[in-house]
Amino acid sequence: MLLNKPHPLEVKVLTRRYEYPQKDAIGVDEYVAKEGYEALKKALDMTPDAIIDEVKKSSLRGRGGAGFPTGLKWSFVDRKSPKPKYIVVNADEGEPGTCKDRVILEHEGHRLIEGCLIAGRAIGSNRGWIYIRGEYRTQIEAMDRALAEAYARGYLGDNVMGSGWAFHLSTHTGAGSYECGEESALLESLEGKRGNPRLKPPFPATSGAFQCPTIVNNVETYSAVPDIILKGGEWYAALGTPKNGGTRLVCLSGHLVTPGVYEVPLGMPLMTIINELGGGVWKGRKLKAVIPGGSSSPVLRPEECDIPADYDSLAKAGSMLGSGATMVLDETTDMVKLMARIMKFYAHESCGWCIPCREGTAWLAKILARLDEGAGTKKDIDMVDELAQGMFGRTFCALGDAAAMPAMSFVKKFRGEFEAKIANAKVYMPAPQTQPLVVL
Amino acid sequence: MTFSPELEAKFAKMVQQYPQGRQKGALIPMLLFAQDEVGAVTPDVIAEVARRLSVKPVEVEEVIGYYTMLTKEPRGKHHIQICTNVSCMVTGGEELFAHACKKLGIGNKQKTEDGQFSLEETECLGACSWAPAMLVNYDFHFVVTPEKLDQLIDNLKKTQ
Fold first, then answer.
1. pTM of this prediction?
2. Which terminus has fewer CB within 10 Å in chain B: N or C?
């Protein structure tokens, strides 16, 4: 089992039951002995409106990337609709740099189940699915074991804790697609189709899984709910900063002394996270750049990093908190090569549904590969920016934006490196077997 | 065709987890689990899954073409996937992949002649804090070095 040594600066809410080193998953007995399913008991006596109000008060925001207020999302569901309502958990963790949901799935599935039950109660749902990426077979099996335990104890089933309310939950495996982390593509995939995004509106709250009202949230978002119900929305909100309630898991990776997954309150300074929890840049090197929220978030230069890490502060700095994946890069990093690799990923994962993204990512990948090989021109650098801007905001889903944002920020903030690659190039023509010759 | 009793039981339960008349929802999980047992999504598997879920074979085909984990060609007994995305790349993922190619004598998406190993350069595996990461079938390996990789492959060769 994977757990980093706990750090004194961590604020443990989500991970409070974890022990270090945690050998086995937290089973139902241990979970119940430590306040487990107490929040569900409380929620069963609350009205749906009271549950949603409590979540609104907590200022919990979506931990999957977009940071949308969770309580607000839940309130969009038309509870009077004659259609069944559904709960969908997005566990398709695919944003490069993100490795937090697997920790929850592996260690404490019951927390996620309890969160889903409370959400189900809030919108009047009787069914939910946990969509887990296919590579996470170990986590799927761990989740299946937790679900079986919950069914055996009557926390799930036709009569949840004797309340007469039925709620069923099961895992659903993906099969390798980054795009399926986008909520509408995920719903398509859940219905057994290619993971192409849907045109929005209608949003999932109106027409989601199987064309019924649905809420889709990240694993971590649902997992935060039990403590909010148990201890109150105000208590949770006070852990963070205004409008950015609670704690979150941060996934530290890259050139760090102690990378890992840590739980921090919203608003902890970014540099504290890097220098204290992450142990600072490895090998005594200097910091060159930070990608604060997964590979789709705009890159930050060291001088831009003296900010609190919450949704609003990062947005103000021109980047985003995203999924909490903080990638730290040291002074030896080749930024051009890195950008070319990021774009190769987006070109591979673009579903091809809409043209700006399908063509944009493919061309950007070609041009960036050319620049990385030293076979580009200065015009290419401008073209990267131009193409990315043309793609931004003009696609069905956020994948187009996710590819455009790093491209624009890398070119803007590390232009010198791109130019140096051209100036120091030893080859001036693209190798024919890897790069098609392009007449511009 | 029929699958193993365990898988049949799993499938029987699975199709009930989707709304009435929307059993197609089970398509992707069924294909993946069937592939794990059979070794690939063979024409027989396609026909069988299509029949069970009352969908057209072409609906199965379009899904196979989309998801990277589904394959019509059998992979090696030990399918090695090495991540070279950002976090892994900056901590030696690319060197690791190059080393694996040399060690096994095959390239990306290729299989050794004896069918024991296949290799794939993969996108983010969600193990970024413990980079570089790799998968052998469904087993994760973290903070992999070329030496660790050699040892792992040698051990797998011995257990054959």
1. 0.95
2. C
